[in-house]
Amino acid sequence: MASSGTSSFQWRWDVFLCFRGEDTRLNFTDHLYSALTRMGIDTFRDDEGLERGREIQPSLLKAIEDSMISVVVFSENYAHSKWCLDELDKIMQCSREKGQKVLPIFYHVDPSDVRKQTGSFGEAFARYGNVTEERVLRWRAALTEAGGLSGWHVQHGHVI
């Protein structure tokens, strides 16, 4: 189903799914991925396990760049993953530079916690003392921007 965007660029993927695997892979994200693919929507989901301390793979960055839409599933431990935060930084960069759409899903988290980095998101940042200030500032800006987007807030199995 991937098609041309507003320019002559040919998108490889309709949707890029960004999520914290240990929070949502075996439940919400699995169901979302299945529903999207059943509808014929070409969806990229990183199925590989991530080794601690590894950097984001160039192929994953390429998949983000080649996706028309990114669906970001913010969950309780999302910000505890440097990998997820690096993905989000790239997603928001592509949104600004290429006009890609970003659709946030706030899965059992308050959108204001994402936007303001409070709650579990604030706790995660308190542990990033060994990360460069530039990188932390990019992550915070990406969370603030994405947390301010209109999306879906899922609490107790219901969209609110």
From TrEMBL:
Principal place of residence: cytoplasm
Source species, domain of life: Eukaryota
GO biological process: defense response to fungus; positive regulation of programmed cell death; signal transduction
InterPro entries for the chain: TIR_dom, Toll_tir_struct_dom_sf
Domain TIR, residue spans: 11-160
Gene3D superfamilies: Toll/interleukin-1 receptor homology (TIR) domain
Pfam families per record: TIR
GO cellular component: cytoplasm; nucleus
Keywords: Cytoplasm, NAD, Nucleus
PROSITE patterns reported for this sequence: TIR
Cellular localisation: Cytoplasm; Nucleus
Family: Belongs to the disease resistance TIR-NB-LRR family.
PANTHER family listed in its UniProt record: RPP1-LIKE DISEASE RESISTANCE PROTEIN-RELATED (PTHR32009:SF115), TMV RESISTANCE PROTEIN N-LIKE (PTHR32009)
Protein name: TIR domain-containing protein
Organism from which the protein derives: Vitis vinifera (Grape)
